[in-house]
Amino acid sequence: MENTVQEQETSSSSLQELLDKYLDGKLLLETYLRKGSGFCNDTIDQIFSCLIKLFSSGRVKGNTMIQFSLGPYIYYSFPACAYFKEIIVATSTNNCLEELEKWRKNEADALDMSHIAEFVCEREGNRETWMEKQSMIRSKMKKALKYNVIKHNPIAPIVLPQVDCLFLTHCIEVHTLTKEGFCSALKNISSLLKPGGALIMIVLKETTFYMFGKFKFPHLCLDEGFLRKAVTDIGYCIEELTVLPRKCEELFDVNDYTAFMMLYARKETEG
Fold first, then answer.
1. Which helix (H) or strand (E) holds 200?
2. What is the percent of the chain where pLDDT is above 70?
3. pTM over 0.90, yes/no
4. Distance (Å, rounded) from C-alpha 187 to C-alpha 206?
């Protein structure tokens, strides 16, 4: 029987404690991006096609990118790795941090993300093999960090110079339970981005919950209008906001999103 984390009884801090206790990075990957599943094929076809188009346009590049994710989702950076000298990956729990380190060191029991690397290489015209793609990102993945979005510096105690790109994938909306909290956390993360830098966000539209294992967690329900306002209110100019309706009929019992939203914006001012 599933265990439900009730939104009205759970603060952001206690949600973090529960994620620390129960989130399993391998289970998360197996649930949502298992090789050959319709859900995986839908996800990588829609999202990664958009990301490949964006990065290959040359509009987003620089020295350093930080990717923030709920789980050990380094694979979202596969389309970006050729355009940055350094990639820092921030994840939400100690377990996911350990999984990222195993993957970076190419250990025998590391997560298998080769099917995603293969897709990216194919869509990029096979500039590299999938093994070369993974080797490239391993060489550029200088740090793996744990984050807390409710802190003014989400990667404290680490202090870094402002970076060229922030890439947020299923991040703030699983750690904050109110729209006010979302805006505050987005402002916290944005402090890490230099003026003129790029913000990329992958957000699930109209999601109310997600599951892994036996646990059902609340997910802040967001739509396109709110996302636009939240980003522009803290000093961004939105370049693109693409809504990709859900195609896959699988896994409605573990995640009820209706579409992916991919946002690309430029930081104009400190919000």
1. strand 193-205
2. 94
3. yes
4. 22
